[in-house]
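User: Small ask, check this?
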Amino acid sequence: MKNLPLEGIKVVELATFAAAPMASMCLADWGADVIKVEPLNGDAMRNFGKFMKCIVQDDDNIQFELGNRNKRGISIDLKSPLGMEILQKLLSNADVFVTNMRTNALKKLNLDYKSLSSKYVKLIFAHINGYGDFGPDKDKPGFDVAAYFARAGILIEFPNKGADPLSPVAGFGDHTTGTFLAGGICAALYGRVRTGRGCKLQTSLYNAALWNLSLDIASASQNGYFPLQGSRVKPRSAVVNTYKTKDDHWITVIILEYDRYIKQFFETVLKKPELANDERFNNQVNSFQHSAELTSIIDEVFNGLTLAECVERLRKADIVHEINRRWHEIKDDPQALENGYIMEIKMPSGRTDWIVGNFAKFDDENTVIRRSSPRLGEHNLEVLAELGYSKVDIADFKKNKIIK
C-alpha cells in the first residue's frame, strides 16, 4: 500500500509487556512512526519468550516481535534529568503518548495526563491499566490473567459445570485490550481534527473483558447463573456443541435458528429424518429439555464417521460448523494464509518463523513488516539526532549512561 492511513502520525510508547505495546504496534502497522522508549535494562517482555519456551536472543525473539514490529526503539534512563529531557522532547513533537505505567508512577515522573496536557495541548494521552481510573482498585496492579480472566469470570464460568477453573492462555486479554485502545486512538485523532485539542483516552483489562462478555453477563444478571454452562454430554443445546469423529478429530456444530435448519440436520447429516417428528426434538424448547438424549444420538453418528465425511454432510446441509484445530496447525491453514492472517517471517537471525498479521486490511493488502522489532536502544543515535542532539551530546549521554 503506497499510503498507509496513519503515515505522518508520531507515537511515543512508554510501556511494558503486552497490552499497550500491542496498541502502538497496531498504529505502527497502519503507518505511524512509533518510538518505543525502554529503560536501560529493557522491556520485561524481551524475556517473556523463555516462559513460552521460545528462542530469546537479540536477533531472534518471536514473542517480542509480536507486539513490537514496525517500531523504532530507544533506551534511556528516565531517572536522570537528561533522560527525562529527551522524553519530553519526544513528547513535544508527538501526536500520541501510549503507556500502561500505573498512574502514581506517572505522577511521580510528571507524565500523567494533567501534567502533559498543560504543555502539549494536541497530545492524545492513551492509557491502559488493570481496573480503570476510579473505584477501590484503581491503583491495583493487574496482568490479563488476573484483571481480564479471573475478575471477569472467564476462568470459573467457561469450564464444564463442577470442573476446576481454566488455566488462562497467554496474552489473550492483553492483545484484545490493546486493540481496543488502538481503535480509540484513531477516534481521538479524528476528534482532534475537529477541535484542535488532544484528549485523555483510557481503557483497562477489566473493562475490555466485560465488553467482550456483555452477552453472557447480561444473561447471568437476569438468571443468576451462566445458562450455557453445563457439560459436553449435557449441554444447553445439543446442536451448539462439539463432537468427536471416528478418526479422532473434534468438530463443532452450531445451529442457532433451530426451526430453520434442524430438519435438514436430521435428514442430511444424521440420516435420521424420523427425529424431525420426535416430540423430544421437534422444537427448540423441547430440545433444550432433552439435550443429553440428542447429544447421545449425535455422538453415535459422528463417532462412526470420519472428519471428511462429517464435513461433507454438514456442508451439504449448509450447517455452520468448524474443525477444532491445534494452534500449531494454523500455519498450514490455507484460509489463514491466503488472507494474511498468519504470515511467514524471516527473523534477523535468518531463521524462518510465523507471525499473525494485523486484524485490519486496507485496500485488500496484507500486513507489511517494514522493520523487525528494535533491539534494545537500536535507534538511539537516529532518534536523538532527529531531536537536534549533536554527536558529541549523544556520546556524552552514552558515556554517562543516560542512554544504552
